[in-house]
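Retro notes (design track)

What went well: tokenization of the new backbones is finally stable.
What didn't: we kept losing track of which sequence belonged to which structure.
Fix going forward: every design gets posted as structure first, then sequence, in one message. First example under the new rule, 139 residues:
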């Protein structure tokens, strides 16, 4: 069989469909284990709280340690930014470049790259299924 775009695209879509089905079946098969582990964690946490301890250690088996995770959402970016600037707490922000905003800037300014940045483009290929093609046909 000679390679042509239709053969390679068809094969790519079939492979992607198989990966998708495999991932879905894994998530479904894994769900009871995730739920059971969450119940174990909840029981251990309740026991730690009831006993006033920070964890358990079972010789030859393992340890369970109570911890804390912080989740943060921002309900008012303007107020938070003002606070950070007034208190000289700009380290509260993470450093990363908003690529879509940078691309819009570059598009509006004749591909000008702001000072201090290196911009590299990588060629990629995206394969899409035809709107009327069904998954069964791609195998």
């Amino acid at each position: 069989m000679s390679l042509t775009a239709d053969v390679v695209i068809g094969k790519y879509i079939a492979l992607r469909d198989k990966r998708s089905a495999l991932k879905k079946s894994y998530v479904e098969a894994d769900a009871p284990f995730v739920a059971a582990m969450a119940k174990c964690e909840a029981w251990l946490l309740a026991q730690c709280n009831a006993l006033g301890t920070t964890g358990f250690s079972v010789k030859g088996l393992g340890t369970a340690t109570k911890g804390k995770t912080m989740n943060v959402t921002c309900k008012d970016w303007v107020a938070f930014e003002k606070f950070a600037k007034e208190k000289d707490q700009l380290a509260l922000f993470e450093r990363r470049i908003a690529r879509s905003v940078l691309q819009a800037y570059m598009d509006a300014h004749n591909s000008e790259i702001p000072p201090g940045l290196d911009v590299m483009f990588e060629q990629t290929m995206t394969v899409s299924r035809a709107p009327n093609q069904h998954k069964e046909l791609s195998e």
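Added context from the reviewer: Residues 1-67 form one domain.
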